[in-house]
Amino acid sequence: MKIVRYEKNGREFYGFLEGPSIVRAEGDLAQGLARTAHKDALAEVRLLAPCVPTKGVCIGLNYRDHAMELGLALPTAPVVFLKPSTSLIGPGDWIDYPELSHRVDYEAELVAVIGRKAKNVPTEQALEYVLGYTCGNDVTARDLQPKDGQWTVAKSFDTFMALGPWIETELDPSDLKIRAILNGTQKQSSTTANLIFDVPHLVSWLSRIMTLLPGDVIMTGTPSGIGPMQKGDEIAIEIEGIGTLSNKVR
Ligand code: ZN
User: How many structural domains does the chain have?
Assistant: First the structure.
């Protein structure tokens, strides 16, 4: 099942994508979504970020290939940082190049979307709290990252949390091809099998630190091949079994 969030005639809805049509839903991710009799054509709506997280919980250095690329030792516990809810954008939205930065990178990431309030969840039950998966771009002002000592500034600019195009609910996240394509050229290519800490581990571990709420997202980290974007560029994040998230930079 593919869950979308979309805008039509100035109003926002959730829905279920079925081929070229969207079955409009009632409710939200916290209450649960119920099908209605109303359908919209995908071609006639604007897709939005598929959820509205209260927080984006992000994992750094979580691919073996990326840690090696940076010459860093593999972490023994997940490296965690947050993106504010105000950094959210959806498919087709602009990434704004901040005045304060001179190097803005893409980071292709598998994103787990939380479906149920999760607190102190055991690893064996962790996937029951995941609604599904979407593509993410953890946009990063790379030049501001080391200066700061921690990563809040580099990761938190408006438009720096790109999610979409929808939430795929029937997906095994353990071995999915993940790619970043900049202006048609492949820049990152890996598989989620290279994750150091997998999705069940992350959900369980994070839920022992902070309550994860429906719609919250875990951005699971990026593989090797990170690099800069320029104004005018188009960046696409593609994950097997989900689809493609595209955004342009201005
Ligand atoms: Zn990242």
Answer: 2
Q: What's the DSSP call for residue 118?
A: B
- CA–centroid distance, 11 to ligand 1, in Å, is 31
Q: Tell me if the pTM is above 0.85.
A: yes
Q: How far is the CA of 40 from the centre of ligand 1 (A)?
A: 34
For residue 5, how far is its CA from the centre of ligand 1 (angstroms)? Answer: 23
Cα radius of gyration rounded to whole Å, the chain:
17
- Do 137 and 35 lie in one domain? The reply is no
User: What range defines the domain where residue 84 resides?
Assistant: 56-249
Ordered per-residue pLDDT tens for the chain, 250 residues: 999 999 999 999 999 999 999 999 999 999 999 999 999 999 999 999 999 999 999 999 999 988 888 888 888 999 999 999 999 999 999 999 999 999 999 999 999 999 999 999 999 999 999 999 999 999 999 999 887 778 999 999 999 999 999 999 999 999 999 999 999 999 999 999 999 999 999 999 999 999 999 999 999 999 999 999 999 999 999 999 999 999 999 9
- Residue 13 sits in a domain of what CATH number? 2.30.30
78 and 41 part of one domain: no
Ligand 1 centroid to Cα of residue 62, in Å, is 9
**Do 18 and 61 sit in the same domain of this protein?**
no
Cα angle vertex 168, ends 222, 28, to 5°? 110
Distance 21 CA to ligand 1 centre (A): 32
CA quadruple 229, 168, 32, 210: dihedral sign = negative
The answer to whether the beta carbons of residues 217 and 56 sit under 8 Å apart is yes
Rounded distance from Cα 90 to ligand 1 centre (Å)? 17
- Pair 62, 94 in one domain: yes
User: If you measure from the C-alpha of residue 59 to the centroid of ligand 1, how many angstroms do you get, rounded to a whole number?
Assistant: 6
Distance 71 CA to ligand 1 centre (A): 16
- What is the Å distance from ligand 1's center to 182 Cα? 17
